[in-house]
């Protein structure tokens, strides 16, 4: 996977393997993630793309029996996110995540966004107000939410809830933002809004997005990685992957002959 | 038409046969329900009719007496409420903490499996056994004597398994994505429990607490075992008041006071030879039931109010 690119690296997987107990779910993955770019992960169901994504914020550490091998180097400080010496909480403070299904907490809109800040010990009302507004604006939901900040988040529509979850992740200024099929539970209009938002967000944060939808990958990403059976088959600039895939398996997948 | 496809008549006959079974089961179900309800209605109305002449203010404000018409349940209902207070204060923090630990912190291995099996079994231990245990530990070993404290702690032990199990069930009902959402912004386990798991599990925990307390308030055997009095003509000292002996009570003196509780008072009255006391027993029985039912009513209301805001 030799990509000669001028943009700096934000992260890099090096010989990354992952095991659910005995089952090897990721096989020796090497892949760069470029700073302030959108990288899409595509592949058929069960290919390991979500597993790979969830390695970046050590989500697997929440459950017993999971094991990583190899490294995910995080730049500019060259920290290995998977090192046993690095606390997963430290990793999650730097790497935000948006889930497949909108998962707002059953609290107010305001408290949902403020939560990450409260966890970091911020209790100053003025600072919180400021950052909540900034995050909601960043997630393009401020206009819809500003008059109902104290309402329950569950009163929002699905698409609004997902943007709220993006705001929740943005509030703590993550360096890398993970999206795990963020639009799979949304209608086409809400999906369009999220895609537009992803495009807007890459000005300030590096994005890694898992998607089932190849058109979405083509629309939103700068780089695309095709995964199959836990292996990284091909990685490259999105237009090159879609126009001229190097690997037969990638070509089969994106032309719809498989998956 | 193929041989294995049914004609319209056959289909209708089939449906009619099915509907008949439906009707039979429905009738049986209603009959069973009616029996259960009828028993309760009979019990309650029997108590009300027998005890009706005792439903006066005096009955609630009088101590026990040798004369049935003057005997009241003051020391019993005060005793029951105070014992319940101690029980709740001891059992809720212990039970909730244990439940949260088992669900959120404990590693899954054979030790936790063993603990889980034991907790489930504890719920089935006869209450008299708790009474024996408490007599040895609280009354003699710790020197709490035959006090409200001993009784409250005994009943706390008794309902601890109920609270632990309901806490765990309430926590298990919280979707994993809520926990992950909290951890994903960098929260610790405790922050996740404090801000999410415990608040969202609260309606379920509350149900368990009330079921436990409703069971505890009716318990007689362990309370007799640790030596509750059956005839008591004084109340526990109110904090910071001066009694007839001229001693000012401290904040927590009441927990060391002798006491009696409703079921013991009822048991005592039913064992008297004078049939006039049966009236007292019936009236007190009704009051005890009313206490349990109002506790349940409060729990249902609180649960409804809390659940309204919790949606995923």
Uncertain ranges of chain B: none
- The class by helix and strand makeup of chain B works out as mainly alpha
- Provide the low-confidence segments of chain A as ranges: none
Give the mean pLDDT of chain A.
93
Count of individual helical segments of chain A: 10
Hey, which two chains have the biggest interface?
Answer: A-B, 27 and 23 residues
Oligomer: heterodimer
Task: Please describe the topology of this protein.
The complex is a heterodimer of chains A (259) and B (312).
Chain A: E1 9-20, E2 23-34, E3 38-42, H1 49-55, E4 66-74, E5 79-80, H2 88-94, E6 95-98, H3 109-119, H4 125-138, H5 142-145, H6 158-170, E7 176-180, H7 188-201, E8 206-210, H8 214-220, E9 223-228, E10 231-237, H9 238-243, H10 248-254
Helix pairs in contact in A: 3-4, 3-6, 4-6, 6-7
Chain B: H1 8-51, H2 57-61, H3 74-105, H4 110-122, H5 127-141, H6 148-172, H7 176-184, H8 189-217, H9 221-225, H10 262-270, H11 276-307
Helix pairs in contact in B: 1-11, 3-6, 3-8, 3-10, 5-6, 6-8, 7-8, 8-11, 10-11
Question: How would you sum up this structure, described in words?
Answer:
The complex is a heterodimer of chains A (259) and B (312). Chain A has 259 residues and is an alpha/beta fold. Helices cover 35% and strands 26% of the residues of chain A. The longest helix of chain A has 14 residues, at 125-138. Chain B contains 11 helices and no strands. In chain B, helix 6 packs across helix 8. The longest helix of chain B is centred in the first third of the chain and has 44 residues, at 8-51. The two termini of chain B are 51 Å apart. Chains A and B meet through helix 2, helix 3 and helix 6 of A and helix 7 and helix 8 of B.
For this entry, give a set of tags.
heterodimer; A: 259 residues; alpha/beta; six-stranded mixed β-sheet; four-stranded antiparallel β-sheet; 35% helix; 26% strand; globular; B: 312 residues; mainly alpha; 11 helices; 0% strand
């Amino acid at each position: 996977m030799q990509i000669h690119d001028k943009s700096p690296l934000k992260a890099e997987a090096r010989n990354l393997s992952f095991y659910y107990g005995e089952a090897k779910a990721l096989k020796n993955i090497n892949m760069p993630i470029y700073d302030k770019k959108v990288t899409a992960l595509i592949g058929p169901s069960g290919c390991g793309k979500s597993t790979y994504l969830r390695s970046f914020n050590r989500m697997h550490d929440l459950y017993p029996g999971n094991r990583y091998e190899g490294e995910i180097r995080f730049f500019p400080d060259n920290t290995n996110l998977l090192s046993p010496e690095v606390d997963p909480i430290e990793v999650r403070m730097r790497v935000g995540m948006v889930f497949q299904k909108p998962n707002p907490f059953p609290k107010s809109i305001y408290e949902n966004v403020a939560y990450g800040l409260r966890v970091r010990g911020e209790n100053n009302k003025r600072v919180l107000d400021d950052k909540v507004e900034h995050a909601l604006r960043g997630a393009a939901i401020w206009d819809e939410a500003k008059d109902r900040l104290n309402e329950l988040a569950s009163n929002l529509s699905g698409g609004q809830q997902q943007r709220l979850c993006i705001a929740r992740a943005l509030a703590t200024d993550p360096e890398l933002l993970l999206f795990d099929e963020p639009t799979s539970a949304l209608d086409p209009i809400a999906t369009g809004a999220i895609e537009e938002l992803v495009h807007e967000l890459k000005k300030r944060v590096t994005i890694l997005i898992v998607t089932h939808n190849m058109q979405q990958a083509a629309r939103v990403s700068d780089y695309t990685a095709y995964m199959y059976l836990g292996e990284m088959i091909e990685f490259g600039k999105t237009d090159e992957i879609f126009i001229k895939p190097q690997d037969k398996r990638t070509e089969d997948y994106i032309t719809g002959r498989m998956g | 038409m193929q041989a294995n496809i049914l004609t319209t008549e056959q289909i209708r006959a089939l449906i009619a046969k099915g509907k008949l079974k439906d009707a039979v089961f429905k009738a049986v179900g209603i009959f069973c329900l009616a029996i259960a309800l009828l028993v309760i209605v009979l019990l309650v109305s029997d108590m009300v009719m027998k005890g009706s002449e005792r439903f006066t203010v005096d009955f609630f404000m009088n101590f026990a007496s040798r004369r049935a018409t003057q005997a009241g349940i003051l020391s019993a209902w005060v005793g029951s409420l105070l014992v319940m207070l101690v029980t709740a204060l001891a059992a809720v923090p212990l039970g909730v903490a244990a439940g949260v630990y088992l669900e959120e912190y404990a590693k899954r291995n054979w030790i936790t499996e063993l603990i889980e099996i034991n907790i489930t079994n504890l719920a089935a231990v006869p209450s008299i056994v708790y009474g024996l245990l408490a007599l040895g530990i609280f009354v003699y070993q710790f020197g709490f004597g035959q006090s409200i404290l001993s009784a409250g702690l005994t009943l706390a032990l008794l309902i601890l398994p109920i609270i632990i199990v309901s806490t765990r069930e309430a926590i298990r009902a919280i979707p994993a994505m809520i926990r992950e959402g909290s951890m994903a912004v960098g929260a610790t386990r405790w922050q996740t429990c404090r801000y999410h798991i415990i608040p969202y599990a609260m309606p379920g925990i509350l149900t368990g607490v009330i079921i436990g307390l409703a069971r505890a308030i009716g318990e007689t055997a362990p309370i007799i075992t640790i030596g509750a009095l059956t005839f008591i003509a004084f109340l526990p000292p109110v904090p910071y008041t001066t009694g007839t002996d001229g001693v000012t009570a401290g904040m927590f003196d009441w927990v060391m006071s002798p006491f009696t509780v409703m079921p013991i008072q009822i048991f005592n009255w039913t064992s008297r030879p004078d049939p006039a006391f049966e009236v007292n027993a019936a009236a007190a029985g009704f009051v005890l039931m009313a206490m349990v039912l109002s506790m349940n009513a409060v729990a249902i209301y609180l649960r409804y109010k809390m659940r309204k805001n919790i949606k995923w």
